[in-house]
Amino acid sequence: MNQRDIELLLSLEQTKNITATSENFFITQSALSKRLNALEAELQVQIVLRSRHGVQFTPAGEIVLKRIHQIHQQFGLMQSELTEITHEVTGSLKIGVSYNFARYQFSQVLAGFKKKISQGGNLGSNCQQS
Protein backbone atom coordinates (compact mmCIF):
# COMPACT_ATOMS: atom_id res chain seq x y z
CA MET A 1 0.00 0.00 0.00
CA ASN A 2 1.32 3.43 -0.91
CA GLN A 3 0.20 7.04 -0.48
CA ARG A 4 -1.86 6.98 -3.68
CA ASP A 5 -3.69 3.87 -2.47
CA ILE A 6 -4.51 5.69 0.75
CA GLU A 7 -5.86 8.66 -1.21
CA LEU A 8 -7.91 6.33 -3.45
CA LEU A 9 -9.49 4.61 -0.45
CA LEU A 10 -10.25 7.92 1.26
CA SER A 11 -11.92 9.16 -1.91
CA LEU A 12 -13.85 5.90 -2.26
CA GLU A 13 -15.03 6.31 1.32
CA GLN A 14 -16.42 9.75 0.46
CA THR A 15 -17.97 8.94 -2.90
CA LYS A 16 -19.04 5.34 -2.23
CA ASN A 17 -18.74 5.03 -6.00
CA ILE A 18 -16.03 3.51 -8.20
CA THR A 19 -16.95 5.69 -11.19
CA ALA A 20 -16.72 8.94 -9.22
CA THR A 21 -13.47 7.95 -7.54
CA SER A 22 -11.89 6.87 -10.82
CA GLU A 23 -12.88 10.21 -12.36
CA ASN A 24 -11.39 12.09 -9.39
CA PHE A 25 -8.05 10.38 -10.04
CA PHE A 26 -8.24 10.44 -13.84
CA ILE A 27 -8.03 6.65 -14.10
CA THR A 28 -10.40 4.12 -15.60
CA GLN A 29 -12.91 2.20 -13.51
CA SER A 30 -11.09 -0.95 -14.55
CA ALA A 31 -7.76 0.38 -13.26
CA LEU A 32 -9.34 1.32 -9.93
CA SER A 33 -10.99 -2.10 -9.62
CA LYS A 34 -7.67 -3.81 -10.37
CA ARG A 35 -5.95 -1.68 -7.74
CA LEU A 36 -8.62 -2.54 -5.17
CA ASN A 37 -8.22 -6.24 -6.00
CA ALA A 38 -4.44 -5.94 -5.60
CA LEU A 39 -4.85 -4.21 -2.23
CA GLU A 40 -7.27 -6.88 -1.07
CA ALA A 41 -4.80 -9.57 -2.14
CA GLU A 42 -1.95 -7.76 -0.40
CA LEU A 43 -3.90 -7.38 2.85
CA GLN A 44 -5.57 -10.80 2.45
CA VAL A 45 -9.01 -9.38 3.29
CA GLN A 46 -11.96 -8.07 1.32
CA ILE A 47 -12.06 -4.28 1.76
CA VAL A 48 -15.22 -3.37 -0.14
CA LEU A 49 -18.42 -4.95 -1.34
CA ARG A 50 -19.29 -3.85 -4.87
CA SER A 51 -22.85 -3.54 -6.14
CA ARG A 52 -24.90 -1.58 -8.67
CA HIS A 53 -25.62 0.89 -5.90
CA GLY A 54 -21.97 1.66 -5.18
CA VAL A 55 -19.49 0.26 -2.70
CA GLN A 56 -19.76 -0.52 0.95
CA PHE A 57 -16.75 -1.11 3.19
CA THR A 58 -16.59 -4.48 4.92
CA PRO A 59 -15.74 -4.71 8.64
CA ALA A 60 -12.13 -5.36 7.58
CA GLY A 61 -12.38 -2.37 5.24
CA GLU A 62 -13.56 -0.20 8.14
CA ILE A 63 -10.43 -1.19 10.08
CA VAL A 64 -8.31 -0.30 7.04
CA LEU A 65 -10.08 3.09 6.78
CA LYS A 66 -9.56 3.80 10.47
CA ARG A 67 -5.83 3.17 10.17
CA ILE A 68 -5.34 5.02 6.89
CA HIS A 69 -7.06 8.08 8.35
CA GLN A 70 -4.43 8.01 11.10
CA ILE A 71 -1.60 7.44 8.62
CA HIS A 72 -2.86 10.23 6.35
CA GLN A 73 -3.09 12.65 9.27
CA GLN A 74 0.38 11.72 10.55
CA PHE A 75 1.88 12.08 7.07
CA GLY A 76 0.37 15.57 6.74
CA LEU A 77 1.75 16.56 10.15
CA MET A 78 5.19 15.28 9.19
CA GLN A 79 5.17 17.27 5.96
CA SER A 80 4.11 20.44 7.82
CA GLU A 81 6.81 19.99 10.45
CA LEU A 82 9.50 19.40 7.84
CA THR A 83 8.39 22.46 5.89
CA GLU A 84 8.55 24.57 9.06
CA ILE A 85 12.08 23.37 9.78
CA THR A 86 13.44 23.99 6.31
CA HIS A 87 11.30 27.00 5.34
CA GLU A 88 11.78 25.86 1.78
CA VAL A 89 9.41 25.92 -1.13
CA THR A 90 9.58 22.62 -2.97
CA GLY A 91 7.96 21.11 -6.02
CA SER A 92 7.22 22.32 -9.51
CA LEU A 93 5.37 25.37 -10.66
CA LYS A 94 3.98 25.94 -14.14
CA ILE A 95 2.45 29.34 -14.85
CA GLY A 96 0.66 30.62 -17.91
CA VAL A 97 0.64 34.39 -18.36
CA SER A 98 -0.17 36.80 -21.14
CA TYR A 99 2.59 38.05 -23.40
CA ASN A 100 2.39 41.62 -22.06
CA PHE A 101 2.54 40.46 -18.43
CA ALA A 102 5.50 38.24 -19.25
CA ARG A 103 7.24 41.06 -21.06
CA TYR A 104 6.78 43.78 -18.45
CA GLN A 105 6.16 42.24 -15.02
CA PHE A 106 6.89 38.54 -14.88
CA SER A 107 10.63 38.95 -14.28
CA GLN A 108 9.82 40.57 -10.91
CA VAL A 109 7.57 37.65 -9.99
CA LEU A 110 10.25 35.14 -10.97
CA ALA A 111 12.88 37.01 -8.96
CA GLY A 112 10.67 36.88 -5.87
CA PHE A 113 10.01 33.19 -6.37
CA LYS A 114 13.71 32.45 -6.90
CA LYS A 115 14.47 33.91 -3.45
CA LYS A 116 12.12 31.34 -1.88
CA ILE A 117 13.56 28.34 -3.67
CA SER A 118 16.13 26.31 -1.77
CA GLN A 119 19.77 26.75 -2.69
CA GLY A 120 19.72 23.48 -4.59
CA GLY A 121 16.49 24.36 -6.34
CA ASN A 122 16.12 24.91 -10.03
CA LEU A 123 14.08 27.55 -11.78
CA GLY A 124 13.44 27.63 -15.48
CA SER A 125 11.07 29.49 -17.74
CA ASN A 126 9.74 29.09 -21.23
CA CYS A 127 7.97 31.90 -23.06
CA GLN A 128 5.77 31.35 -26.08
CA GLN A 129 3.69 33.79 -28.05
CA SER A 130 0.23 32.62 -28.99
Automatic annotation (TrEMBL):
Residues 1-58 form the HTH lysR-type domain. One of its GO terms (molecular function) is DNA-binding transcription factor activity. InterPro entries: HTH-type_LysR_regulators (IPR050950), LysR_HTH_N (IPR000847), WH-like_DNA-bd_sf (IPR036388), WH_DNA-bd_sf (IPR036390). PROSITE patterns: HTH_LYSR (PS50931). GO terms for cellular component: cytosol. This is HTH lysR-type domain-containing protein. It comes from Lactobacillus corticis. The lineage of its organism: Bacteria, Bacillati, Bacillota, Bacilli, Lactobacillales.
